[in-house]
Design brief:
Elements lengths: L1 H12 L28 H10 L4 H11 L14 H19 L14 E5 L2 E8 L2 E8 L7 H9 L15 E7 L4 E8 L17 E9 L11 E3 L5 H12 L5 H31 L2
Antiparallel strand pairs: 1-2, 2-3, 3-4, 4-5, 5-6, 6-7
Helix pairs in contact: 1-3, 2-3, 4-7
Length: about 280
């Protein structure tokens, strides 16, 4: 496709074909009808000389890339002045993000929780009295979208921008020994509860759904009954919250999970900027 496009572009640059005159210039010189050899299109000749024969295809394509102001580093990719400015911007951005990074290593969650991290997904595991409690969350899309708009409206000129906070949804799985079912509780942080201080009786996270899933299976069974707490009796809901608190999933845990998630999100953001810089610079 690129070769055909380049050939059409080269053909467009050639001068129109020379037509023989209607009358012979000399009856004794019929060859005057043919254009002299020196009249060969200069573009085609120069391309042939540059390419050394069949190499003219490369010579046709290179000017098209160079015409956009790009230079090659030998990788075969496109590099422009815009890429150079982009890479410099990313370099400065990475330096600034590292300056404000609070945690060089991920903070620990109290209560004997063991942390496992796989990219943007984190898992906290705790074993107690014949039970295994697992809390899983993913930092993708964990920063509330309204946070940026609110800070721009409420922020005064002399004030610093508030830190972005990651409040991911998280799933709690409770597994009892010698059972085939796992109790699964889908939890999230309500926006109107996060950041409120002095309200000890208020829970900063809520349970959204509850269900049983087969133990040891990663696929979620949609055929299993799922209890939505929107229409749940408050007494039953309070018992579910107490059930989690007895296993270490309480307000203190939820606060520490926010701190952990925020640190992980910032860490992955910086890594993303570094990967993007390397991609733009082709390192």
């Amino acid at each position: 496709m690129l070769l055909a496009r380049a050939l059409r572009a080269a053909a467009a640059l050639r001068p129109p074909p020379r037509h023989p005159p209607r009358r012979l210039l000399s009856s004794s010189s019929p060859r005057a009808l043919l254009p002299p050899p020196a009249a060969a299109p200069p573009l085609a000749r120069s391309l042939w000389q540059l390419g050394g024969g069949g190499g003219w295809r490369t010579a046709l394509l290179r000017p098209r890339r160079g015409s956009a102001g790009g230079v090659s580093c030998g990788c075969g990719g496109l590099h422009t002045e815009g890429d150079k400015a982009f890479a410099q911007f990313l370099t400065d951005e990475i330096k600034e993000e590292k300056k404000i990074q609070k945690h060089k290593s991920l903070p620990k969650v109290s209560g004997g929780w063991e942390l496992e991290v796989h990219g943007t997904e984190a898992k906290l595991v705790r074993k107690i009295a014949g039970e295994k409690i697992t809390v899983t969350f993913n930092i993708n899309n964990s920063i509330p979208p309204s946070a940026e708009d609110e800070t721009q409206e409420e922020q005064k000129p002399d004030e610093q921008e508030p830190d972005l906070t990651s409040t991911p949804n998280f799933v709690v799985e409770v597994i009892k020994d010698d059972t085939k079912q796992t109790l699964v509780l889908d939890c999230h942080y309500p926006e109107d509860e996060v950041g409120h201080e002095g309200e000890e009786e208020s829970d900063i996270f809520t349970i959204r759904e509850v269900s049983f899933q087969p133990t040891g299976e990663s696929d979620w069974k949609d055929t299993n009954y799922t209890l939505n707490t929107d229409s749940l009796d408050w007494a039953l809901y309070d018992h579910l919250m107490d059930f989690l608190a007895d296993r270490g999933v309480d307000n203190t845990f939820a606060d520490e999970l926010i701190e952990l998630s925020t640190a992980l999100e910032h860490q992955e953001y910086i890594k993303f900027l570094e990967d993007l810089k390397s991609f733009v610079k082709c390192q």
